[in-house]
Design goal:
mainly alpha, 8 helices, globular
């Protein structure tokens, strides 16, 4: 990946830390209220929460693992997927239990905690992981741009769908995107480092 993607991962981590310490401040509360007013009741946006549901993510993850196994024989890629999606999901639950922010007040609300949004965080992780492997060895610039724009667009819609359904505050979603991207970059760094190491070990043909 381009070096500035890694720099962005540091910036998003700092952004997550700032949100963690400030989501109860007056400015952030106002920010949450404005986003809720803008998106709550938008059924088009709300539809995209399905793409971030656990059953969808589990199915998509399994398909990607099978593709990497049978079509590419990419075992490190399989670990990439498990670290990114599975590890990210675990991290999200640990953060929620540690921070324990209560969800927006609404009838029949979910009982789990709110910060950061699982849909935003794990949705980004699995969509970006798909985009990474769909563009990893593809020479076409148009294809790479198209895939990444699609992944980013879906990531935004999945996160915003949680505001539209009043399941999360805007700061929950923003935090999910930020820590999700930072975690994704960590996995990419590990994967690309291991790939370089393995390539160096390959014997040079006569």
């Amino acid at each position: 990946m381009k070096k500035w993607f890694f720099s962005l991962g540091i910036i998003t981590f700092i952004g997550f830390v700032l949100l963690f310490f400030n989501f109860t401040h007056e400015e952030m509360v106002k920010f949450d209220a404005e986003l809720s007013e803008a998106f709550i009741g938008n059924e088009f946006v709300r539809f995209f929460h399905h793409i971030g549901e656990p059953y969808w993510i589990a199915s998509a993850t399994l398909l990607l693992v099978l593709f990497l196994l049978f079509r590419r024989n990419n075992y490190r890629g399989m670990l990439f997927v498990l670290f990114s999606v599975g590890g990210g999901n675990l991290l999200n639950h640990l953060l929620k239990e540690w921070i324990q922010r209560v969800r927006p007040d609404m009838p029949h609300q979910l009982t789990s905690f709110s910060f950061p949004s699982n849909h935003a965080m794990v949705g980004l992780l699995y969509l970006f992981t798909y985009a990474y492997f769909m563009t990893e060895n593809h020479a076409s610039l148009k294809w790479r741009i198209g895939v990444w724009i699609s992944a980013i667009t879906l990531t935004l819609l999945v996160g915003l769908s949680r505001i539209a359904g009043n399941n999360h505050y805007g700061t929950d979603v923003l935090a999910g995107w930020m820590i999700g991207y930072s975690f994704f970059i960590i996995v990419v760094i590990w994967y690309e480092w291991r790939t370089r190491m393995m390539n160096k070990r390959k014997p040079i043909a006569d």
